[in-house]
């Protein structure tokens, strides 16, 4: 059980039923942008990290853009991670090493709610006790989406990684960076993350399904609104949103701009869809830098 979960860690780190849906009023399905940076052409595609067979095939325009690219940029190359190394890294960062357990670090009412959720998902409570709250969040999320029929093997980033031929694969981040980000949140921030995850489990995946439909139809405003609603105003919420999205978006935009500006070519970028939307998304940040960018 744990090995199967750890295999999905790189995909989960980044934060996702698909049925046929109409194209948005913007005229383009899915969340894809095209930009010119120096002498380079850059395509930016929002990823849903877990998927279903019904998500594919993707539109021909998207596949043609990918096939014409010289490099595929992803958050983490999940197709090449060493599983034993991943297990060691996650265990070191996400499990208590001082003899305490998750129960010792959560308010009593929250732990009781967590116990109920664990039981409902068919997991042994003992599995979760060594985990810190942020890792418990990933465990619950991974099992929940799989029970809804999603598969990491059908995630959008994995879909393109499995189809690489001539493209160079370039990581924007690393597993170590993502683990450091999550393990760096305070106890209160991790408790907030757990509370939000438990609430999402209670809604039976309704918000998740709506978000994915908006992704498929290419409805950026609706997708953005659902993302914002997941982070209600508050100290912990604001800090987590800034670290998970705002700060990383800036780093991603800088990485893409520097690479495309110094090494001419065609780049196909696949990152979590949440990083591409809104006024602080990567496309908007590239536009602020003076680069032309439009929905594709």
Number of helices: 13
Along the chain, the helix and strand elements come as: HEEHEHHHHHEHHHHHEHE
What is the count of structural domains? 1
Rg on CA atoms, Å:
19 Å
What would you note in describing this structure?
The chain has 296 residues and is an alpha/beta fold. The chain has one domain (2-295). The chain is built from 13 helices and 6 strands. The protein has helices at 2-13, 60-67, 83-94, 108-120, 125-128, 133-147, 156-161, 175-183, 187-202, 206-217, 220-229, 235-262, 282-288, and strands at residues 32-37, 40-47, 71-74, 168-171, 266-272, 292-295. A 6-stranded mixed sheet has the order 4-3-5-2-1-6, with helices on both faces. Helix 9 (187-202) packs across helix 12 and helix 12 (235-262) packs across helix 13. It starts with a helix and ends with a strand.
Brief characterization of the structure:
With 296 residues, the chain is an alpha/beta fold.
Write the layout of secondary structure elements.
Blueprint: H1 2-13, E1 32-37, E2 40-47, H2 60-67, E3 71-74, H3 83-94, H4 108-120, H5 125-128, H6 133-147, H7 156-161, E4 168-171, H8 175-183, H9 187-202, H10 206-217, H11 220-229, H12 235-262, E5 266-272, H13 282-288, E6 292-295
Parallel strand pairs: 2-5, 3-4, 3-5
Antiparallel strand pairs: 1-2, 1-6
Helix pairs in contact: 1-3, 1-6, 3-8, 4-9, 6-9, 9-12, 10-11, 12-13
Keywords:
single chain, 296 residues, alpha/beta, 6-stranded mixed sheet, 6 strands
């Amino acid at each position: 059980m744990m090995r199967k979960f750890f295999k999905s860690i790189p995909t989960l780190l980044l934060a996702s039923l698909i049925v046929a849906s109409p194209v948005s009023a913007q005229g383009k399905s899915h969340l894809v942008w095209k930009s010119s940076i120096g002498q380079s052409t850059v395509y930016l595609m929002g990823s849903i990290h877990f998927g279903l067979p019904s998500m594919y095939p993707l539109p021909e325009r998207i596949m043609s853009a990918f096939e014409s690219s010289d490099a595929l940029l992803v958050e983490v190359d999940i197709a090449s991670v060493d599983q034993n190394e991943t297990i060691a890294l996650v265990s070191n960062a996400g499990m208590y090493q001082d003899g305490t357990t998750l129960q010792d670090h959560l308010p009593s009412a929250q732990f009781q709610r967590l116990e109920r959720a664990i039981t409902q998902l068919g997991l042994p409570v003992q599995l979760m006790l060594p985990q810190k709250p942020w890792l418990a969040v990933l465990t619950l999320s991974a099992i929940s989406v799989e029970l809804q029929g999603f598969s990491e093997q059908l995630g959008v980033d994995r879909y393109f990684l499995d189809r690489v031929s001539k493209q160079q694969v370039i990581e924007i981040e690393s597993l170590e960076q993502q683990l450091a980000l999550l393990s760096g949140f305070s106890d209160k921030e991790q408790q907030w993350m757990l509370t939000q995850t438990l609430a999402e489990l209670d809604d039976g995946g309704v918000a998740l399904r709506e978000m994915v439909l908006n992704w498929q139809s290419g409805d950026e405003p609706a997708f953005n609104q659902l993302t914002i609603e997941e982070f209600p105003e508050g100290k912990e919420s604001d800090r987590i949103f800034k670290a998970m999205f705002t700060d990383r978006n800036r780093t991603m935009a800088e990485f893409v701009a520097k690479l495309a500006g110094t090494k001419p070519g065609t780049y196909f970028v696949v990152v979590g869809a949440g990083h591409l939307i809104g006024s602080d998304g990567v496309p908007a940040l590239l536009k602020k830098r003076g680069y032309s960018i439009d929905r594709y």
